[in-house]
Amino acid sequence: MIKHSSEPKSNPVNPCRHKLMELTTRDWREDGLSNLAYKIVRMTHKKLYTHLLVDLLEKEERPLLELMFC
User: Which InterPro entries does its entry note (predicted)?
Assistant: First the structure.
């Protein structure tokens, strides 16, 4: 693995990272876009695609995730 320099402000270390990595081997088949909680902020129709700007509701979801995984 490549070592990276620390980025404390923009990318702090997640204290739950080891627990999350353990659970990944079990949950990877069921975890994904089908159960992602989000709110559509803006939808723009283009000729070749539809651009969606979404809010991932991190402020609402983070406390629940910390209870489950930390």
Answer: Nucleotide-diphossugar_trans
